[in-house]
Amino acid sequence: FWVIPAVEVKIEVVIPEKERSKEEMSPNGKASPLIYKVNGTARHYHLEEHPIASNPYHNPKDVVEASVCHVKDLENGQMREVDLGCGKALLIKESGEFHAVGHKCPHYGAPLVKGVLSKGRVRCPWHGACFNIGTGDIEDFPGLDSLPRFQVKIEKEKVYIRASKQALQTQRRTKMMAKCISLSNYNLSSTNVLIIGAGAAGLVCAETLRQEGFSDRIVMCTMDRHLPYDRPKLSKSMDSHPEQIALRPKEFFCTYDIEVLTEMQVAAVDVKSKIAVFKDGFKMEYNKLLIATGNTPKTLSCKGKEMENVFNIRTPEDANRVVKLATSKNVVIVGASFLGMEVAAYLAERAHSVSLVELEHVPFKKFFGERVGRAVMKMFENNRVKFYMQTEVSELREQEGKLKEVVLKSGKVLRADVCVVGVGAVPATGFLKQSGINIDSKGFIVVNKMMQTNIPGVFAAGDAVTFPLALRNNKKVNVPHWQMAHMHGRIAALNMLAHGTEISTVPYLWTAMFGKSIRYAGHGEGFDDVVIQGDLDELKFVAFYTKSDEVVAVASMNYDPIVSKVAEVLAAGRTIRKRDVE
Question: What sections of the protein cross the membrane (predicted)?
């Protein structure tokens, strides 16, 4: 496995100005060191001023200042993309005040001017990330970075923006983070925070701890060979290499002393003695634990399931290998899940044939409803994907050890050189069975609004948990999606530091197929009706999912930024009635 080298670090903690003002002051108004209790011992450290925080324009050559508009050009609640000559900024007017931040969402580069402005924040039109317009800080996910913030001044009725050229070009800002005070003092087999799993939840937890000034040891461990990567791309952009989809470069983990153990599987957790036992016998003691192991793909139960060329897409290597083997060959995909449908869409242009086998009569029926499911199915059929519905696989047949045919229960035999299985997943929590951590009948870890389990100091996050969803009257739900994993990781970190922060985010997800995206916000489980506006045949529509009289979720295609608008209304705690959308 790979461990970040232990180095003696003398550097202290850096915190942005706005956070310094509130965190640096003790009750008597004098500057006081932050203190964290680490394994029972109080550890003091002072905040150190960071030149970038106090003067973001310390290099005059890096600064540009430009007049961008007249004060009356923008009404309250309006946004405008403005050009400063060497880059663009987003100018916003709210409550009579002007703000300027980066104009592109740091996640995938969406133009934020097309997003939704509401009560001091702007929400991305594509995937729902939210940014504070006063600070640029990220407040909801996906993505890891914040927006750069630029200075605005008004002179003679004109609005001027002063900005760093570098920030205008990068359009992103990584929040200031603490470092570890002295790694060389540590015993290799003990850590303050242990994070099991290196997906979005684990990484955001580690980053949030450092952003909040936590300066003790953090160890993440993963069964994967790679540092944390953008997992949704495995099915949406299948020939991406690990380094292309890495969430952070290797240097980032070294800089902020976040240690990552790769190809390391935890076999058991002893919560009484606070020890994680790895599969190879290695033991690690922890003070706080985050379990963010995600889920494990279900496999087929039929004859021939162990054969070569039958894949669950779990790693970049799996995805790359499927693309290579599928090119100009016959592909059978089992399961019209998000993964199955995205893989079918990706391979449709590359393979000789793509066949999709599904138990339901329409794809996505439970999630998007029958009418939207049919429209999506038609789009796939127009792109040469053949569906075999209301049946399942009875056998996989080989020739010379390699997959040759997929036999369906309907009796149909499909030619197949490659088979991809996307029939759902189960939480990867088997190793916790004897731990005393509360797990429900389906294997999900049960947590409260602060992502705490029933065991003090043990938190859980991501696809493997059920948590109370504020949007649905605190009903315990499982939301196995990318944005939610980020937010879980953040909430867990804040509560490891005893902030008492509760989760209240609105679930937001997207799927991409044939260059088109379906965006979705809310939690539609158990919807009893769907109100559709627009044109399903043209794939330009918005669908509102209702339960009794209330809108519980929304999906759209080619209708931005409606999903982000609805997400903002729901996030504000307001109810949308069925009659409002009919």
Answer: none
365 SS3 class: helix
Average pLDDT over residues 499-527: 97
In a domain, 483, yes or no: yes
5 has pLDDT over 60: no
CA distance 163 to 67: 12
Structurally, how many domains does the chain consist of?
4
What is the pairing mode between strands 458-460 and 288-291?
A: parallel
Instruction: Quote the CA–CA distance of 369 and 525 in Å, as a whole number.
Output: 11
Please count the other Cβ atoms lying within 10 Å of the Cβ belonging to residue 377. Answer: 22
**Residue 320 and residue 241 in contact, taking contact as beta carbons nearer than 8 Å:** yes
Give burial (CB, 10 Å; 0-12/13-18/19+) of 309: buried
CB 248 within 8 A of CB 229: no
Question: In this model, does residue 51 exceed pLDDT 70?
Answer: no
**What global pTM score does this model have?**
0.90
pLDDT above 60: residue 197: yes
Q: Which secondary structure element, helix H or strand E, spans residue 565, and what is its range?
A: helix 562-571
Please spell the DSSP secondary structure of 35-75, one letter per residue.
Answer: EEEETTEEEEE-B---HHHH-TT-SGGGEEEEEEEEGGGS-
CA distance 568 to 564: 6
Residues 314 and 414 reside in one and the same domain: yes
| Structure tokens, 436 | 């005393």
> 165 and 66 in contact (C-beta within 8 Å)?
no
- Read off the CATH number of the domain in which 445 is found: 3.50.50.60
**Do both 355 and 414 map to the same domain?**
yes
User: And the tokens for 550?
Assistant: 């209330």
Tokens of 36: 């964290």
Residues 349 and 398 in one domain: yes
